Amino acid sequence: MKAQLQVTVLSAKLKENKKTWFGPSPYVEVAVDGQSKRTEKCNNTHSPKWKQAVTVIVTPVSKLIFRVWSHQTLKADILLGMAMLEIKESLKANDLKLCEVVQTLQLCSDRDSRDVVGDLSVCLDGMQVDPETLATAEREHAALPNGNARQNGDTGNRSSRDTSPSSDSEEWVIVPNGHPANGTGSPSRSPGGSNALRPPRPARAPPPTPHRPTASPTSSSSSSPSELSEAPASDGSSQASASGCLNQQDDSAAASTSTSTAATATAAATAATAAAAATAATAAATSQTAAGPKPATSASAAPASAVPATTAPRITPINNGPLPQGWEQRADQNGRVYFVDHIEKRTTWERPDPLPSGWERRVDPMGRVYYVDHITRTTTWQRPTQESVRNYEEWQHQRNQLQGAMQQFNQRFIYGLQDQLAATANKEFDPLGPLPHGWEKRTDTNGRVYFVHHPTRTTQWEDPRTQGLLNDKPLPEGWEMRFTVDGIPYFVDHNRRTTTYIDPRTGKSSLENGPQITYVRDFKAKVLYFRFWCQQLSMPQHIKINVSRKTLFEDSFQQIMSFHPQDLRRRLWIIFPGEEGLDYGGVAREWFFLLSHEVLNPMYCLFEYAGKDNYCLQINPASYINPDHLKYFKFIGRFIAMALFHGKFIDTGFSLPFYKRILNKPLALKDLESIDPEFYNSLIWIKDNNIEECGLEMFFSVDKEILGEVTTHELKPDGGNVQVTEENKEEYIRLVAEWRLSRGVEEQTQAFFEGFNEVLPQQYLQYFDAKELEVMLCGMQEIDLVDWQRNAIYRHYARSSKQILWFWQFVKEMDNEKRMRLLQFVTGTCRLPVGGFADLMGSNGPQKFCIEKVGKENWLPRSHTCFNRLDLPPYKSYEQMKEKLMFAIEETEGFGQE
């Protein structure tokens, strides 16, 4: 009994507060059944006008709660007033149909419901029910011990489409024009004002109770069986479009084909005019057995041509070919043509097409129609079409390609060629010769080679042949050789408690000749695997984000936080008001780049530089001076996750320890070196020297200063009284390092990851390391001119054209900063993917840098950031081209400028 309701927040009139000079900046929060949507804010006004539509999923007994807030910059938002609207009452007052119904609600104070603080005007559209459905919903709601608690709790977590085969309630779907239709065939009013009825269905006797079939084909589907009924809806332009309404009724309403086709057609002809608004019959929901197919639940749209209700001419169909067996063409009382399927007992506006090649239509012992695909040897309840078969073949082809990429990703590779790996695995070509007696060489599931010693029943990563060469001369006393996870040998000096790659016996580094067994994962395969999962998580359609360049930070914050996190996985459509740019990828790239420059600006006190000479960013412990800093960190978490999810680059990167936090990897003492070298060196000095001889008098407590305020933090309980000695200094170093890496930023980090995980769960990044994550988020800044020229293409120019030669001469004379400005002018971002210019992305996939001959010599160059294309006019001289290009790069901002 759920439906999609469009709520348009029109305007409000708020009581003026004479104590303040400026008016509030109100916005409206719409809450219903666990859902929450927000509008944009209006600045400094007591009479805001939004005219913003939000879409929510509701039931006939839901309650809409409107809260009007006043946005505050340096403190929490203030609740101005709230109002509640019962959908049930609105339905009863408007003949059970909400079609552009405007209502004015009184806003009351949250402290006293009798205190009216203003009124709010809203418009409800796109919902229609019948009396039986409303009565059923009221009974179910009244039968609950606490209806409101159930409604606001469970409903928000349930799916918007309930496909339970045992449900007695009817399900709601939305027709394309935004008006829902239910299973009873109630007419829905189109924007043009005319009513569109369902095509009349043939009359038939009540079906018998279904019985379990004894023989039926095997099904490849796993959903509950149900039939389709179409609900065409007309509009003012004589075109009717409909979306199939999926209805599920009691088992006693199962379909039966015991009556003959002729008898059914005769009965339908006599009852057509009386049943013009009747619905199509639905099939019974039965459980899947070994002998019966179990179809997938779906709904098909059925648009048809229609004429206004004032005229009733008979329309001749365009396609006059023969109909499939069991179908009949009829016309309703308005002259509209519809088609009757006497076998499935249903009607539709669409003319039925013949089955695709290789398909056959059959009927099981219960009279239910199913379809057999002799090519794949599968069955389905849904009637196949040429388009559905073609879409399935395309999907299967894409799946095979992705499976191949995933298989390649799951492999590990030795540095060098793969054939060298196969050669070393073969004893005949192994340069080290055969293994010693009792040893065996194997490969684990990840492709990594290990060695088994059968006499001792032990395994090891090291090759016993190379290990024997090293062991000819024993290590000095107190030394031990170990191996990293990549198979690189290193040496541990237990006397001084240090590690090194230099062999104490030979004085040579183990890195000179390369590791014995060094494996790497292909970074491109990782990225491809990550993009595959992002595609699986993506949502259909797109979301529009309207932002102004002057208030980019605040506008983006308001809109991103007003969306549901899953909506941020849709394709982004960025709009800068007053600019004509259409976002096919380029505008979004520029939005990510510009917004990241704003939100990561240390002047906002949310982030700070990691060090004096290190311009990587880390969370500022003093960010609490902004009372809403946790909301901003949640917003930044969503924004960074969106950049990774949509494959866009940001301007400034974070410190390596912060990337390790994103990857859920533990931090170590070595991570301090990249953000605070002096602090790191002091801890290393404590580790390498005897502190008792120096008389440092250190305790398990540290001091920190934030905004001039010095506070003391105890590293362990009663740490201020526990002195650091030679025995416990390892614990002291570990605790100090942990404190230094997370001091004063626990709440901010938690808020950041709360927003991050809402859009992109962290487990999807587990295959990357910190450096790879940085490259994937920030791209590469260094520009290779040779790579740029090699991967450039030309339209209406030749590689030897004088304008092209002048252009590359101009780029060659630039420094790297100006080259980045030129790249941002053409592509929307100054960062490059890992593969360089060969991996530049456009609106529909890879798109190389392109120079096209467009315009006259007095024109300025133009760019198309969505397609990485530069429109270069045919200038007459090098000086003219240089002047025009520099002016376009340095002075132009925005889109649609000439």
UniProtKB/TrEMBL annotation:
Domain HECT: 564-898
Keyword DNA damage: no
Taxonomic classification: Eukaryota, Metazoa, Chordata, Craniata, Vertebrata
Annotated catalytic residues: C866 (glycyl thioester intermediate)
Comp. bias regions, Pro residues: 199-211
The protein's name in its UniProt record: E3 ubiquitin-protein ligase
Gene3D superfamilies for this protein: 2.20.70.10, C2 domain, Hect, E3 ligase catalytic domain, Hect, E3 ligase catalytic domains
The UniProt record lists the keyword Ubl conjugation: yes
GO BP of this protein: protein ubiquitination
InterPro entries: C2_dom, C2_domain_sf, E3_ub_ligase_SMURF1, E3_ubiq-protein_ligase, HECT_dom, Hect_E3_ubiquitin_ligase, WW_dom, WW_dom_sf
UniProt source species: Pagothenia borchgrevinki (Bald rockcod)
